[in-house]
Amino acid sequence: MTKKSFDDRSQTRISLSIKAHRSSTTDARPVPLSHSRTFQWSETPAVSVEINSPDFLFKYGQACYMDSSASLIAIGTERGYVVVFGYHQEVIHVLTPEHTTAIPESPPISSTGYIVNTSVSSLAISSDSTVVVSGHTNGLIVIWELKSGQELTPPLHQIKPITFQDRFHKNKEGHLSITITSIKIFHDNQIVSSDVSGLVFYHHGVKSLLARNYITQKLLGNNDSNGIPSPKYRIYDMDILALGNTPQITDSIGMLAVVTGSMVAVLSVFSMDNPNNLYLKTHFKMQVPKAVKLTSDSLACTGWFPCMEYEGVVSNAKLAVSWNNCLSILEVDNAILPANFVGVINDLRSKDKSIPTLPISRTARKYLKDPIISLKWMSTSSVCCFTHKEVIILYYKNQGHESLKIIGKEPLGYVPNSLDFKLNKDHISRTFNSSIKLVKMRVLLLNQKHHHSQLAIGKPISWNDKLAELLAKKYYEEALNACYFFYSSKGIGELVLFSLPESKAIRKKLVHPYLMKILWQSIPHFSNCAVYFRILATLIGESKEIDSELTEMIEMLYETVSDKAEFFDSLENYLISGTITTLSPLVLKALVSYYGECGKGEPLTEILCTINITFLDIDLTIQVCQKNKLDECLIFVYNFLIHDYDTPLLHFLSEIQNNRVDPRNESKVFNYLSYILTGRQYPIDKFIEYSEEQRAKLRTINILFRHETEFLGIQVKETSIFPILTMLLKYNSFEMLSTLNEFFEDSILNEEIESSISRQFIIDALLDIYASNDFSNTDKCHLSIFVGRNYSKYSQFIRLSDSILNQILDNLLNFNHPEIKVDCELAIQSLLTAFEPFDEKKLIEKLSYKKFYNVLISIYKGEGKYYKVLQIWLNQLDEGHADLTNVKDESFNVLTECFSNTKLGIDKVNLNTLIKDNFVKLATINTNNFVYIINNYEPSLHKQILKVNEGSVVFSYLDELFKLGCNDSELIVKYSECLSQFNSSHLYGFLKAKYQFVEGNDIHNLETILSDAKQINALTIPLTSEGKYQESLDYLLEQLESIKELEKFDESFKLYLSIIESPGFYSQQQMSTASLALNLNEQYWLKLIDCLIGLSKEMPTINEFIYKSFRKISDIKLNPNDKNETSFLKIFDTFLNNNDQTTLLNVRNILIEILISYSYESEILRLSYKIINQNIHDKLNVIKYHNLKGWSISCKHCTNCGKQLYGSHIDLSNFMVWEQRQQTVLNMMSDVKDAESTDQLRLVFFKCNHGYHYKCLRNLSSDTCVVCTQ
C-alpha cells in the first residue's frame, strides 16, 4: 500500500485484512438450551400402593401430611398415625399416638374424655432420622424415638394441650386444643411449634431416671386470651436454620424465622451461657412490601439455607421469604464478623450480652406472575418456587440489581395437597408444607385426587441426563450443541440448573471427555459444518499444543461431508482469524485446489499466511499462485517455506527494468523491502524467525548496494556505483527513502556484526548517487528529508560537513509541493536540534516565508522569546494551520508556558502588549482557561476587557472572573451592565454582595446604567447606600404599577418593605405640627396601600399583598420615638378619608378579613391572659404553701398558756383528729368530726416566731401576736 507520510510504516492489504478478521473474532458462544423440562418426575409405586390400600385406610386413615429426611419418608394420617417408609419404599415403622401394642379399629378415647387420634397437622423428622414429632388438630404433640426392628412404635412422650384455666390460673404454658400448624426440631430434645392462634412455643426435653419430660415456654405471640384463631395473629410459616459444614455463631444460638401478615422476624432462641436456657434476641425485621396486598386467601412461606463452604469459599446463610408472588432473599453477612468471632465469644464469661445483632440484610427481590405456595432451596445459589401451576427455579447471586434470575420452569403435573385450617367464618389458613418437601435435590410431592393419594419424586434433569436423552434419540446435532453449552457457557445460572459446578476449570474438566466422544460420534450424522467448526475452534483455542485428535476430526468431517464448498466456507473464518491453525495434509491440499479453482486468491493468501503450512504441497501451491497471479501468496511460500528472499526481489526489479509494473502495484517492491529490512514476514506482520532474519536482511542489502548486476540475471541500465539502488530511487525516491528510513532503526547498522553497511555508508552512497545523476528538486527534497530526520537521531553514527547540512537545509526550505510540507517541517525541526546554520536571521526569514510555524516556535523557545512564540501561534491560528480539534488545550498550554518562562523586562512588556492586541481572540478560544491564566500571572490585564465592544465576550469573561473572585470597582460596574443585559435575575444578588467595593465615580455610573436598564431592584442598593430612601421607594412604587408577573411583583414588594422598615429610613422622618399629619414613614405606607388598591382592580391576586401591608403596619412600630404608637390608626383613618365609597367597596372583603383577624387575635389574647392569670394564682398558692411548709418552728410552747404546742405530750384529741383524717383519705369517707372542734385544735405561728393555740388567741380577741403586735 502506498504511503502518505514519510514516517508511515509499510503495510499490505493482506496484513490489514487479517487484522480486521482478528479484531472481529468469530462468535463462538454456545446456543442457549431450550428448557422444555426441568424435572424428571416418577411415582413411588410401593408407597402409593401402600397408602391407598384398604387395610391402610381402615387402620390409619387417609394420608394427609408428608415429611422426609435423608433416609426416611414419613406419612401422617387423618387418624393421627405416622407411617415411616425406608429407602426401598417399605414400611419400617408405624408410629402410634397412644401407648398401645395394637391398632384399634376406631379412634380411641382417653381417660380425660378427648379423642387422641386426631388428624396429623404437622410433622418433623430430626436431622439424624432418629426422632419424629407430630402435631395434631387437637393441640396434641407426640414425640417418637425410632429404634431398628420395632415396627409398631409407641410414643416416647406426649405434650398434651392445656386449658384456659391452666394458662391463667395455674401459669402453665402450652397450646390449647387447637391445630398445631408447624413443628421444627432444633435438637432431639429441643422442639419449636406454632398453632393456628398465632402462638409459638419452645419444648425442652429433660431426661430423668424413669422418663423424659418436656418443659414448655412461650416464644412469640400475643393471642393468649383468645382460644378462637384470628387472622390478625396468624403465623403463615416458620423455619429454623440448620447446621452448615462450617462453624458459625448461628450454630449455637438457634436461628428462627417467623412470617406473619405484617412482617418477617429473624430471632435467636438459645443462650450461649447455657444452651438449655432461652435467650430471645431479635436480629432483623422486614415489613411486607408495599406492593403486596394481603387478603384472606393470601399465602406466605419461608425457608433457610445454611452457611456452606465449597472450594475454600464460604457462602452466607440465606433466608427466602415470600408473600403472594413477591420473593425476597435475606443474607447473614459473615464477612462483617471477624474470623475468630466464635472463639472470642466462647472465651467470655457473659456470652449472651456480648452477642451483637447479626448483620442481616435484604439482597434481592423479584415478583413472579403467580402466588408462591412453597419455597425450597436446592443449593446455595438456586431456590425452587412452587405455584399452583408450575415449578420455577431461580438462580441467586448477590450482585446488585439482577440478583435473582429465572433459569428454569415447567408446568406442575401434580396438584399438591393443602391443609386448610379455619380461622373464622370468613378466613381459612391454607398451607402446602404438608405435601411439598425437598431432600438431596429431590422434590417429594404428596398429591391426592379423588381420594387416591400419590407420592411423586421430581429429580432435576442433570447435564448427563440431558445428553443421554438426546443421544438415545439420535439427535446428534442437538446433543453436540447441548454438550458445548455445558462446556463453554458463561451463564452460571443455567449451568447450576443442570447440576454443573460453577467453577469454570472444574466444569470443563468434567465435560471435556463427553464433548470429545460426542464430536466423534456425530461426524457421520452431521450436516451443519458451521456448528462443528465453532466447537472445534473453541477446543483448539484452549489447547496449548497442536491436538492431532482435533485435526483428525476435521479430516474425517471433510471426507464425510458431500458439499465441499460449505465445508471450506464454514472453515474459512476460523482459519483467517487464527483460531484453527493446523490442517492435515489432505485437507490442506484440497483447500489450495478448491480456492484455486474458485478464483478466491485473496482468501487463500490470508489463510496460508495465517495457518501452519508445514505440510503444504509446494509445487501445487506455486502453480495455483502463478495461474491466479497471487504475488503475495507466492512470495510467502518462497520466503517461509523455501527460505528464498532473493527471487521475489529480483522479480520486482525485472518488472521495473522492463516497465511491466501494474500501476496498482507500483509500491509492492518497496513494501517487500520494508518488510524484509525490518524483520517482518511479507505480506503479514509476523516477525521472521531470528535464526534467518539476519541472513534475509544481509542478502537484501547486498542486492541493493551491489556494484555489478550480471550474476543476478537482470540487466540494469544504470551506470552508477550502486545501479539497483539508483534505479529504485529514480523509480520512486519517496518510497525508497521511506523504506531506508524504517531500516535505519535496525540494530544491524550499529556495526555490531561483520557488515560493511552502516548508516554513514548509506548516507554517503545516497549523496554520491544524487550528486552524479539527474534528480528532480522534489527527489532532492526527499533526500533532504531523509537526512534531516536521521542526522540528529543517529548523530553518533553519522558525520556530515556544515556545507552539506546547509545544502540539505536549503533544499528543505525550497520545496514546491504542499504534500510534503509537513515532512519538510519535521525534518528541519529535527535537523536544527543538532546543527546551527550560518545565518540564523536569514533562516528565520525563510521559515516565516514558508510558514514553518512549528520550527519557528522551537527556535524562539530555545532563545527564550516567548512573546514571539505566542505571536507565531496566533499567526498559525489565523492562517488555519493550527489543529482546531485541540486548539483550546493548546491555547492553555501556550499561554501558561509563555507567562511562566517570561521574566520581567522588555519581554514581559512585549508579551502583555501582544495579549492586549489579541485579547478578544484569546478570550474567545477558551474563556475559562484564559481568565484563569490572566488571574494567576497578570491580573492587571483584566481591565483590558473594558475596551472590548462585544457584549457576549465581555459577559463570558467577567462571569468566569467573578467566579474566581474579584473586587475591582470598574469591573463590578461593567459586569453589572452585562448582567442587566444577559442575566438580570442574578444582578440583585451580585450587587448585594459586591456593592461595598464600588467607589468614587463608579457609583454614579452604576446608578445611570441600572436606571437606563430599568433594573429597579438592583438600583435600590446604591440609592439606599447613599441615603436616598425616598427615591428608592418612588422607583419601586413606579415598578409595582408596571409588573404583571406575580413572582417579580412579590420580590419588589418584599424589597419595598425591607427599605421602609430599615433604621436609616426612620432617621429621615419629619413630624408634622398638625395632630393628624403623617410622618414620612407613614406617608410611604399609605402610598403603598393606595398603589396596591389601584392594582387590585386589574390583578385580584394583589389582595393578598394589601392584607400583608395592613398586618405589617399593625405588627411593627412605625415611629420608634413615640411611646404612644398611633401610626396604624392615623394611616387607616387617612386611607378611609382619602378614598371614595367605590374604592372602599373594592377592598371591603379585605378590610373585613383584617378586622376578623384582629378580633380573633384579641379574643385569643384575652383567653390566654385569663388562663395565665389563673395559672399564676395557683402557682402562687403552691409557692405560699411550700414557704409555709419549709418554716422552721422554734416556739414549742404557747405564748399565752404556756402549754406544749407539738410533740409527744400534747392533748390526745389531736391524735384522734389525725386518725380520722387518714381514714377519710383511705376509705373515701366523709369527715365525721365536727369542724368547730377541729378548729379548736389549730395552731397559729407568726413571723416573729411566737406561737399560740387558736383558742388562746381567740380568747385574747386578737388576730396578731400580742407580744409583737404582728
UniProtKB/TrEMBL annotation:
Signal peptide: none annotated. InterPro entries: TPR_VPS8_2, Vps41/Vps8, Vps8_central_dom, WD40/YVTN_repeat-like_dom_sf, WD40_repeat_CS, WD40_repeat_dom_sf, WD40_rpt. Keywords: Repeat, WD repeat. Residues 567-744 form the Vacuolar protein sorting-associated protein 8 central domain. Residues 1119-1181 form the VPS8-like TPR-like repeats domain. WD repeats lie at residues 120-154. GO terms for biological process: endosomal vesicle fusion; protein targeting to vacuole. One of its GO terms (cellular component) is late endosome. Transmembrane segments: none annotated. It comes from the Eukaryota. It holds the Pfam family zf_RING_Vps8_fungal. This is Uncharacterized protein. It comes from Candida tenuis (strain ATCC 10573 / BCRC 21748 / CBS 615 / JCM 9827 / NBRC 10315 / NRRL Y-1498 / VKM Y-70) (Yeast).
